Amino acid sequence: MSQCSRLLEAMRQGEVITPLRAFQITGSLACHSRIAELRASGHEIVKEMRCENGKRFGAYRLVGQLDLLE
After folding, report:
1. CA 10, CA 26: separation in Å to the nearest integer?
2. Does residue 12 carry a pLDDT above 90?
3. Model's pTM, two decimal places?
4. CATH number for the domain including 40?
């Protein structure tokens, strides 16, 4: 299974993907590149900037996952 496939499957299950979570799933530090590839293949993914312990990072989710519950 490819890195993109693993990330997409996690997002389809409702996970929010952070760089740390992407590393845990794929073993890759190139989270933003995999997200860009998923977007290029037609998946609508939004990014929310977060800040924890003075560090800023993006958190990505698949559009429609939480929206369907509201």
Report:
1. 11
2. yes
3. 0.83
4. 1.10.10.10
